[in-house]
Write a structure and sequence with these properties.
By secondary structure, the chain is of the alpha/beta class. Helices cover 26% and strands 38% of the residues. It contains 3 helices and 7 strands. A 7-stranded mixed sheet has the order 1-7-6-5-4-2-3, with helices on both faces. The chain is globular. The structure holds zinc ion. Residues 82, 84, 92, 95, 108 line the site of zinc ion. This is M67 family metallopeptidase.
């Protein structure tokens, strides 16, 4: 029994790709998890416009392109992901402000291969269960 109230269904190749890029990037990486409801079917990487190892902001033009791509394919933004370098995959103060602006699931990974997912519920951060599935299941 888990006490998670929310879950994120994430295909294995997608989390592997995100972790691989996070582990080899000197700056935080970020992007969108696209799909329907809580099921991710595609990942779109967006350039970190801050080019920073301690914070991120999606580069506006690439972000817009990613959102247009999602709309064109009839996909929703299920989640936002970004990486932390050598820090736990938990939301920072700045992440919390971002979570207020983008009230979807936030997947945070780190350069050591750890990950966690979070969302705001009534202004409080709650953990989201990450269910890794094989593609198509
Ligand atoms: Zn962060």
């Amino acid at each position: 029994m888990s006490d998670f109230r929310f879950s994120l269904v994430l295909p294995k190749p997608i989390i592997e790709e995100i972790l691989k890029r996070a582990s080899s990037s000197p700056i935080e990486i970020c992007g969108f998890l696209l799909g329907r409801e809580n099921k991710v079917s595609e990942v779109v990487f967006v350039k970190n416009g801050l080019d920073s190892p301690v914070e991120f902001e999606m580069e506006p033009e690439e972000m817009l392109k990613a959102l247009e791509y999602a709309e064109g394919k009839g996909l929703e933004v299920v989640g936002i992901f970004h990486s932390h370098i050598s820090c736990p995959p938990t939301p920072s103060g700045k992440d919390l402000r971002g979570m207020n602006l983008w009230p979807v699931v936030w997947l945070i990974v780190n350069s050591s291969g750890e990950y966690g997912a979070w969302k705001l519920e009534n202004g409080k951060v709650v953990g989201v269960e990450v269910r890794i599935v094989n593609r198509g299941s």
